Amino acid sequence: MYETGEAVARAFFDRWNEGDADGIAALFVEDADFVNVVGLWWHDRRAIRKAHDYGFRHIFENARVEITELSVRELTPDIHIVHTVSILDGQTGVGGTEAVQRTAVISMVTHRRSSAFQIVCCHNTDRVVGADTHVVDTRGFRVCTQLVLFVTLEL
Prior knowledge:
This protein is α+β, with helices and mostly antiparallel strands.
């Protein structure tokens, strides 16, 4: 069905734009892992399907996602890592208003099983332009954009 890691990754985005939680789940191996943008970790196909179904009904019912960059690293002929950058528009925001556009970096490890590639694990991260890191302090969770990081390496 999907002859490359790229093909199964593109199918993920197609199913996402169709709001097809069953179709998304079918792209994953049974014991797949999925880490979403806020760090929730789903440990199997059933949980991945359930989470996407909820999202399509309550958060992303009017949303569309578009791949703007895609790269594939072939570890072996049967294992491909796919990295994508995508733009999300139309998410339902606080109070039902439309949220602003988001950019995500999504990484997938794909594996050919039998004759088709499937997704073994997927990690979704928001790209925050200009941010150095996230900080949690007495004011809560926030993006830090003026932090200078110094790293000391001992060799």
